[in-house]
Write a structure and sequence with these properties.
Layout lengths: L1 H5 L14 H11 L6 E9 L15 H4 L3 H17 L3 E9 L11 E8 L4 E5 L13 E8 L2 E6 L4 E6 L8 E4 L4 H15 L9 H20 L3 E2 L6
Helix pairs in contact: 2-4, 4-6
């Protein structure tokens, strides 16, 4: 990352969920105080077992991927949580296992518990556990609870449901959305390259590093049974 900054080279991380209009609206809702102080988040990004043929072989090789489901899916959820709250993860607890794919050399399920710098508690389900009957081979969701309201975001249902007790809020509403987030990610990258360094990446190398640190801390917490504390200082 330092080399890229010195050479003024663009460094982007493919956290496509940041391009979801619903996630951007969720960030605005929190920043505007429309659900009060946030104190709890439940999130998940699950895949389908057995892994589809379209998955590259290295995904299930610890040597190449660094882990399994936790490394594959938790990073998108923890990044989304950091994105909407503006807070950093300072504590990680986790349990991981291999339950859905017999003989797999990496984890295919787990539960990650997070403590954020602002006191928010969160949980993440990164498991490869999506039922075959589900119309999508994955899901991505967030349930955010504040002192004066809550909202539920669902990627595959393309919805953001908000309920707030604040008199000036919109009450309970449905916010539909729908874009090709992969296309938006590539379009953003191309525009950044064309316009030069002054246009910041939507998800930077630092954001990628934070997500990696959290995933690695989850593996350490699962291995040791202890809470792993993380520093919030910049790298």
């Amino acid at each position: 990352m330092a080399a890229c900054r010195t050479a003024t080279v663009q460094f982007h991380v493919a956290f496509v969920c940041r391009f979801l209009p619903a996630l951007q609206e969720a960030k605005r809702i929190i920043e505007a105080g429309e659900i009060g102080q946030v104190f709890g988040i439940v999130g998940g990004n699950r895949g389908r077992p057995p892994l589809p043929p379209t998955y590259p072989a290295w995904i299930t090789t610890e040597e190449h991927a660094g882990g399994g489901a936790v490394m594959d899916h938790s990073v998108h959820v923890t990044d989304a949580m950091r994105f909407i709250t503006g807070a950093e993860v300072v504590g990680v607890q986790a349990e991981t296992a291999t339950l859905y794919n017999e003989g797999l050399a990496v984890d295919d399920c787990g539960l990650v518990l997070l403590t954020f710098s602002d006191g928010t508690a969160a949980s993440v389900d990164p498991s490869w556990s999506m039922p075959h009957a589900n119309p999508f081979h994955y899901d991505f969701y967030l349930r955010v609870v504040g002192l004066e309201g809550a909202f539920a975001l669902d990627d595959t249902r393309q919805s953001l449901r908000v309920a707030s007790d604040i008199p000036t809020s919109r009450g309970e509403v449905w916010e539909p959305f729908g874009v090709n987030i992969d296309l938006e990610l590539v379009r953003h990258f191309v525009n950044c390259v064309r316009e030069g360094v002054p246009t910041p990446p939507y998800a930077s190398g630092e954001d990628g590093l934070r997500a990696l640190e959290i995933a690695l801390a989850a593996y350490e917490a699962s291995r040791t049974g202890r809470t792993v504390e993380l520093r919030t200082t910049d790298h």
